[in-house]
Specification:
Layout lengths: L2 H27 E6 L2 E6 L3 E4 L5 E7 L6 E10 L5 H22 L3 E11 L2 E12 L2 E12 L2 E10 H6 L1 H10 L1 E2 L14
Antiparallel strand pairs: 1-2, 2-10, 3-4, 4-5, 5-9, 6-7, 7-8, 8-9
Length: about 190
């Protein structure tokens, strides 16, 4: 009997079994947000603050045990892909510059790098803003795209260690995000007078 091979098989079985248990725990751990056509999943332990207004749906997800924030911004107006450049100048560029200026005002050195990710199955552009203050660092990942003809901006901000620890929730939010087509309310029939 080959003890090394037997040990490897048991180890592989334990990994598979622990993965199944983890998947079951994560499935029961999931919460679901659904409002005004915007839906996404997220993990238990996170709270949502809804600061939406007439221009946009704005949601901040946070945890009491971590210095993290995820922001979901969905502009209410519908635009075509040809108008995305205008939306970028009006909404996204000022937001990115505002975040960078906030880091600088805290005394941080800011490093920028381009990035991209999928949001709800749509490839979206992004940027990472890494704030470095005396050896400590925090990163703001900002991604944007046109989903369901609506401008979507997702942000994941916090100390790098906490962001790594809770990356699975970030992945769940961005991968599950969907925007349903909202239909106008049917007009009531009025008989002619």
């Amino acid at each position: 009997m080959n003890l090394g091979r037997y040990t490897f098989q048991i180890f592989a079985l334990l990994i598979v079994c622990s993965g199944l248990v983890t998947a079951q725990v994560l499935a029961s751990d999931a919460k679901h947000f659904d409002k005004e056509g915007l839906t996404f999943d997220y993990s238990a332990g996170w709270s949502i603050a809804d600061t939406s207004n007439s221009d946009a749906q704005q949601l901040q997800l946070s945890r009491p045990d971590a210095d993290l924030q995820m922001t979901v911004f969905v502009h209410r107006g519908r635009i075509s892909s040809e108008k995305m450049a205008d939306a970028h100048k009006a909404i996204i560029d000022p937001y990115i510059e505002g975040v960078a200026k906030q880091f600088v005002s805290m005394g941080a050195r800011v490093e920028r790098s381009s990035d991209s990710t999928d949001i709800g199955g749509v490839r979206c552009d992004g940027i990472k803003l890494k704030a470095i203050v005396t050896g400590d660092s925090a990163t703001s990942q900002i991604y944007w795209g046109l989903i369901g003809q609506r401008v979507v901006v997702l942000t994941f901000f916090g100390p790098d260690n906490d962001r790594k620890k809770f990356a699975s929730t970030w992945d769940t939010v961005r991968n599950s995000l969907k925007i349903a087509e909202t239909k106008p309310a049917p007009k009531r029939f009025q008989a002619p007078k």
